[in-house]
């Protein structure tokens, strides 16, 4: 489905037309054709937009709060998640009701409605067995889905998430949540981002200004202020704490130690109440891990090993190449086509400095140094094919 087709499908959605007609972003790193965007009907008739990309075992991502399937596809904050996960899994993700490309004009954001949305996406995609990753507020809904449909979920991942929206929150955290809601009401849709920047900083305090600007804008693009408030209020009703003891499947809990949005104690609670769950503490303060921070390759490695464990995935050929991240491999591939660092930066919508940093990481992982490191790395790449 092209950008124009999507815009026509939702005449009420100003955002979609802006992204494809007015906005200066270009889809260089990931073409629109690389993801298959579809729509299904939830139990109450709400249209839910979902997308499929990648190859490998099925991995369903339960929607995080701020998402826009097409806008995320080109973002410097989410793009690395999509490329890396799609490298080893068939990724199915969707826009929460009221958000992104899904129907916007709604009043019901209850846990029951959100569970029905997840069920509708899974059924429409024709999935019989799949791994399920709950991101942030997707935790309670994913946990309930597993409890209701244990025969369909092979593995459960809980990333930056929780079992109960406010059930384990401290008094300070509850007061902060109330303050956030007030900020949404007065500042969410203002043309300047100072109010939205509060949320941006909570999610990615370690980000560059460019990344923060992108997330500032995503907030307006993904959802209106009224829907943001309504969905947050009903999200507080979600509580799957009593279901944790019923889960009988491999479970991986990943959480940033200094997460400002969902505190790390939520991860401890999840891991200690799900039988056999493994907890991975990520050395980061970012709720959304950024591509250049040390915690990112840890996250990718843990998720890949967990998701592909059943099929026994084999690493890429070539000495040391299995150590490279997808982005590092991508940079090296472009260098192998004769592109210099500036051309690689243009191709991948990165800064030249970021390209240089990726190449330095490649040389380090391959045990190379000196003026011939680039040529030696390319020789290893070509030899591994």
Description:
There is one protein chain. The protein is of the alpha/beta class and 385 residues long. The protein folds into two domains: 305 residues, Alpha/Beta hydrolase fold, catalytic domain (Rossmann fold); 63 residues, Orthogonal Bundle (Arc Repressor Mutant, subunit A). It is built from 16 helices and eight strands. Strands 1-2-4-3-5-6-7-8 form an eight-stranded mixed beta sheet, sandwiched between helices. Helix 5 crosses helix 6 and helix 7 runs antiparallel to helix 10. The longest helix is centred in the middle third of the chain and has 17 residues. It is globular and about 60 Å long.
Percent helix range:
40-55%
State Rg.
21 Å
CATH class of the largest domain: Alpha Beta
CATH architecture of the largest domain: 3-Layer(aba) Sandwich
| Whole-number tally of structural domains | 2
The CATH topology of the largest domain is Rossmann fold
Mean pLDDT: 85
The neighbouring-strand order within the major sheet is: 1-2-4-3-5-6-7-8
Shape: globular
**Corresponding CATH superfamily of the largest domain:** Alpha/Beta hydrolase fold, catalytic domain
Which structural category do the helix and sheet elements fall into?
Answer: alpha/beta
Query: How many helices does DSSP assign?
Result: 16
Low-confidence stretches: 1-33, 312-318
First and last CA, distance: 33 Å
> What sequence of helices (H) and strands (E) makes up the elements?
HHEEEHHEHEHEHHHHEHEHHHHH
Count of DSSP E strands?
8
Taken as a percent bin, the fraction of beta residues is: 5-15%
Main sheet? 8 strands, mixed
């Amino acid at each position: 489905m092209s950008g124009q087709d999507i815009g026509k499908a939702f005449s009420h959605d100003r955002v979609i037309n802006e992204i494809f007609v007015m906005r200066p972003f270009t889809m260089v790193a990931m073409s629109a054709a690389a993801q298959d965007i579809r729509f299904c009907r939830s139990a109450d008739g709400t249209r839910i937009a979902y997308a499929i990309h990648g190859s490998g075992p099925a991995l369903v991502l339960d929607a995080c709060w701020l998402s826009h399937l097409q806008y995320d596809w080109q973002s410097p904050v989410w793009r690395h998640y999509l490329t890396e996960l799609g490298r080893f899994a068939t990724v199915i993700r969707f826009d929460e009701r009221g958000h992104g490309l899904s129907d916007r004009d709604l009043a019901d954001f209850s846990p029951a409605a959100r569970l029905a949305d997840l069920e509708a996406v899974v059924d429409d995609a024709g999935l019989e067995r799949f791994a399920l990753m709950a991101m942030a507020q997707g935790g309670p809904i994913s946990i309930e889905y597993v409890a209701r449909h244990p025969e369909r979920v092979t593995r459960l991942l809980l990333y930056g998430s929780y079992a109960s929206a406010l059930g384990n929150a401290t008094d300070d955290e509850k007061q902060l949540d109330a303050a956030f809601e007030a900020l949404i009401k007065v500042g969410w849709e203002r043309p300047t981002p100072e109010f939205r920047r509060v949320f941006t900083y909570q999610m990615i305090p370690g980000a560059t200004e460019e990344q923060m600007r992108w997330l500032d804008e995503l907030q307006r693009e993904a959802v209106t202020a009224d829907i943001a408030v309504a969905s947050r209020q009903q999200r507080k009703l979600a509580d799957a704490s009593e279901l944790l003891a019923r889960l009988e499947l491999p479970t991986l809990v990943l959480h940033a130690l200094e997460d400002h949005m969902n505190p790390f104690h939520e991860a401890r609670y999840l891991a200690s109440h799900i039988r056999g769950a493994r907890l991975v503490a990520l050395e980061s303060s970012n709720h959304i891990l950024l591509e250049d921070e040390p915690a990112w390759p840890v996250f990718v490695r843990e998720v890949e090993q967990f998701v592909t464990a059943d099929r026994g995935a084999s690493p890429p050929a070539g000495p040391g190449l299995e150590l490279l991240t997808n982005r590092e491999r991508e940079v090296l591939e472009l260098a192998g086509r004769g592109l210099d660092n500036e051309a690689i930066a243009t191709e991948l919508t990165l800064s030249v400095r970021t390209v240089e940093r990726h190449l330095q990481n490649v040389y380090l992982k391959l045990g190379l140094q000196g003026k011939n490191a680039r040529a030696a790395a390319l020789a290893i790449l070509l030899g591994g094919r």
